[in-house]
Amino acid sequence: MSKKIILSGIQATGKLTLGNYLGAIDNWVKMQEEYECYYMIANLHSLTVRNDPETLRNNTLKILAIYIAAGLDPDKNTIFIQSQVKEHAELGWILDCYTYMGELSRMTQFKDKAAKHADNINAGLFTYPALMAADILLYQADLVPVGEDQMQHLEITRDIAERFNNLYGETFVIPEGYVRKASKRIMGLQDPTSKMSKSATNLNDVIFLEDEPEVILKKFKRAVTDSENIIRFDIENKPGVSNLMQIYSAITSKTIEEIEKEFEGSGYGNFKTKVAEAVIQKLEPIQIKYKELLNNPEYLEKIYTKGAENARELASKTLNSVKEKIGIIV
Ligand code: ATP
Ligand code: LTN
Questions:
Q1: What is the pTM of this model?
Q2: pLDDT at 1 over 80
Q3: CB 183 within 8 A of CB 47
């Protein structure tokens, strides 16, 4: 039996965070043996906000380096840059024409980003989910591992695929979203009621994967908690402590009950240090490998060139079948 197909990606906007690692990349690493995996760097999606060109180029390579440093094996997975497989832009346009304004305007990511970038609410920001649907449907992906915030985009992808299949007959596999419970939504350290995000303005809110150990320790020590001084999971009343427990659980694979036991009678100071140490220990080998890879641009180029070639094989097959069905001369 052939393996099930996975596709996922991360935008090339900004530095990657612990949220991206635990919510996405770390899960991908765990899936690479069992599935046929396609992992991309979504640099076309990055254009929906303004970027400095040099920074965008560098970020694209940095994300590629993180993917590999975190344990994605380029021999086992197809790792590629979205823009290098032109089928994405092409199917993206086609799917724009099968996606309704009404459904796009319900997307919370659009509403959030439009509020954040009120001076640049561009058409790409609005049609973003149709391009994401193209990313997924081109590879006939069965499963899409993402953080919880992306599930709404998965739902619209399924709706677009079903709509197309109903009109033209079976064309796309209907993908399922996959969210790992332990790390579905890592919250900010300063504001534990909102998601830890690459584009945060308060740097103490976010652990960046590139942060030095002493910076990581300092950020955890400053993390917002509460005055109860008991390590107990209660998202409603203790969002800060619960978030730290969730991070510790995702890193160590210990259950919340085990963590409550481990820190029974312990104060927040000791707990925060332990969480920081676990994160530092996990990130250290990744950071070392990451620096090595960034010093080897020829190797990175080899990986993404081969990745794009591989990806194109399946992507062009799907795109051609779509074009034939809708009457576009191939
Ligand atoms: P931005 O805040 O700029 O929108 P982001 O940090 O959310 O960026 P994305 O590129 O949108 O990053 O997300 C990449 C992947 O990481 C997605 O699967 C997303 O669900 C996941 N992810 C991002 N932040 C978190 C988080 N705090 N907790 C869990 N998963 C996350
Ligand atoms: N929108 C995603 C990034 C992304 C993606 C994809 C994720 C672009 N294309 C395809 C999964 C599958 C985000 O995390 N902001």
A1: 0.94
A2: no
A3: no
The residue count for the chain: 330
- Dihedrals phi, psi of 7, to nearest 5 degrees: -135, 140
**Ligand 2 atom nearest to 147, measured from its CA:** 14
Whole-number Å distance between alpha carbons of 53 and 47:
10
Residue 198 annotated in active site: yes
Active site residue 274: no
Instruction: Compute the distance between CA of residue 95 and CA of residue 166 in angstroms, rounded to an integer.
Output: 14
Please give the distance, rounded to the nearest whole angstrom, from the Cα atom of residue 154 to the centre of ligand 2. Answer: 9
For the question of residue 195 being annotated catalytic, the response is: yes
Q: What share of the chain is helix, strand, coil (3-state, %, to 5)?
A: 60, 10, 35
The pLDDT of residue 182: 81
Residue 276 CA to residue 180 CA, distance in Å, equals 22
Residues contacting 112, CB < 8 A, separation 6+: none
Q: What sign has the CA pseudo-torsion 238, 240, 246, 252?
A: negative
CA torsion sign, 195 to 198 to 202 to 205?
A: positive
